[in-house]
Design a protein that fits this description.
- The chain has 301 residues and is α/β, with parallel strands linked by helices.
- Helices cover 40% and strands 16% of the residues.
- It has two domains: 28-123, Leucine Dehydrogenase, chain A, domain 1 (Rossmann fold); 140-269, Rossmann fold (3-Layer(aba) Sandwich).
- It has a six-stranded parallel sheet.
Amino acid sequence: MTGARIIDGKALAERIKRETAATVRTLAEKGVGVSLDAVLVGDPAAGEIYARSQRQRCQEVGIIYRLHTLSAEAREDDIRGLIRELNVDRAVTGILLNLPLPHGLDTPAIQYCIDPYKDVEGVNPSNIGLLFYDTPIIAPCTALAVMEVLKEAKIEPKGLDAVVVGQGGIAGRPVSLFLLQKMATVTCCHIATNDLYEHTRRADLLIVAVGKPGLIHAEHVKRGAVVIDVGINTVVDENGARRVVGDVAFDDVKGVAGVLTPVPGGIGPVTVAILLRSAAEAARQQLATPRRLDSYSQPRN
């Protein structure tokens, strides 16, 4: 064996962005502008950094970007009120709530306020719940990115023994549901799993989304397995230099796996591209669905 086939996430992301730009142009021809309205609560200096990056990415595909900032002292009702205004504004087709929110705010409750048709990250509980039935309006971007990478690698999940390490709400759990719907046999591992090695060693498809640098080594991986690394971690080496690594020890695993995603350059750029695609999809769905879910324009108590 010569080593794993490395998936080029950057190239895949560029293709998705080209397709998204074409969708945005088509919607514009129908009189529909695609927008992404980002809400940021907290440090305005950090907001400028977020805005610069997000605006640039949106401009690349023709999406209108607007940033709405609130101070770190903003109350939950203030944030809900802003989201409610964005929900009912017909010029707004996509809403993004930048996380983390300041300590003490109820993030899920605030996410619940986002109209499911404008929820570009797929984090509204309605979208998460519809995922259970394989009918989300918009699904979580990271989970969609994992499935897009499998499609790009021509990996058919049906019949595979799949192990998903990490069961977070935006990656592990949604990916597990996607794989079940694709007829994989799925094992869900997490912090309470007693013997991780025994599970990962038998996986045809191993997906790791924990946030722990170098958790998975060669001895954890079945020879020829497909390994998808969702983790993004910043570490400091002995010289004080900072670098980004995944949950998988890349150099160790690449000689054992059959297919492997790198970090950086793997799931990360694909997730960003999927977010842009979801923004365009949100606008398309609003055009195709005249009846709005007006109840989501009101805050939930």
